[in-house]
Design a protein that fits this description.
alpha/beta, eight-stranded parallel β-barrel, 22 helices, 8% strand, globular
Length: 514
Amino acid sequence: MPRKPVKLTDTTFRDAHQSLMATRMRTETMLPIAEKIDQVGFFSLEMWGGATFDVAIRYLAENPWERIRQLKRHIRKTPFQMLLRGQNIVGYRNYPDDVLIKFVEKAAENGIDIFRVFDALNDIRNMEIAIKTVKKCGKHAQGTICYTISPVHTIKYYVEFAKKLAELECDSICIKDMAGMLAPQPAYQLITALKKEVGLPVHLHSHSTSGMVMMTYLRACEAGADILDTAFSPLAWGTSQPPVESVVAALKGTPYDTELDLELLSEIAEYFRELREKYYDPLRLIDPKAERVDASIIVHQIPGGMFSNLLEQLREQKAEHRLKEVLEEVPKVRKELGYPPLVTPTSQLVGIQAVLNVISGKRYSIVPKEIKDYVKGLYGKPPAPIDPKVKKKIIGDEEPITTRPADLLEPALNKIPEDVKPYIENEEDKITYALFPQQALEFFKKRKLKREEAKAGIPPERVEELEKIAAVSVALATCLASSRGMKALIPVRARAATSNWVLAGRQSLTEYGA
């Protein structure tokens, strides 16, 4: 057979810890191993997007934008990849176009090279602006298919959707198997069809939840898959991706041999193993349930994160004993709501409604606002028609919208309240506030407080001097980052030591609230 080496993407800095430990890995934890990871030869490093933005400001007291910049100083060869939820950006609802466009521009400017763009409903309208903006920025647009199983989600359905992504000039197609339900033979058939009828490189993303993933990956290689998602073994398996070391070893000597250095991979894995043993396990950040193989997902199709949410909701209601009823209710609700793929945010919508139906004892007697908005079409067009009787119960005689949901949203970047403006320092802060107003404001206030505490005890004249130095240093760093001409004249390493004051400020920010 002709050689066709498969490429690998590492997800350890994003989806792996999002899947296993609620996205709690800190930037300072990533930096010591970053340069070695850069030596591996990965196709890309997924290190941003998804829940990383929300968690950074909500729980870690970190500036998510700074994570890109810090990692970029250590990783110079491997492209950076992020997960972009289409019009949802990195949040849980549709945002106006001005926020989306500026977000993509700033992410590209800071160092994101590959944007994996998806929509929970596979509604191309919710992806179009994001993809066009990525292309305008000269970056790699990866159009994404959210894989699920239902009567309407056929090979033909997926191929037709991929053709629409190709028409938007996407550079590659990703099959996003968020629940780990993609079996080996369906994977072979789908990838074969995509390669034949669309012709773009195919990137397969899956999870280890059902236990099928290694067989699925091998069959995907046989069908012509170009890239696979993996994670380092200490943060692999369970609801995460399969381990990179195992995938590399399994493909060695085959036509799909990755040719990656197993010794280097093992050395990097040891870093994460020690990190886990010293910090993550003692703090119980990783739930043992998240690491188990759960083959029942093949039947109920509920991703690990959604399953955890269901359990938590039932605990709050002191109704854990009704889990079986909820698991039986989820597929019913999903069918009635038009078979939405169970991925953020639609997985939360279906799960919450299923719990309410069971707890209340009368189906759809309690309907959250988000479900009403979904039925009204404010999240996009469902893959199949919503059950007319259910629609009547939820929104009465109101007709769902037929336009692109974001067309109904007014620009938001220039609508920052007066009491918030004193905390806004740059365009990135504006974007952060537009995405998560409440959490962003709290983050900004803590940032300001920390700086004021740092100044305490320093003579006023010294503070003024240091502020001037910091201002000049930031201006110089910005110039070096944005001016291609400058990079040819000034060593790139100069950016890493522009000002001890700036670096100290960043360090104190990362430590705040730890």
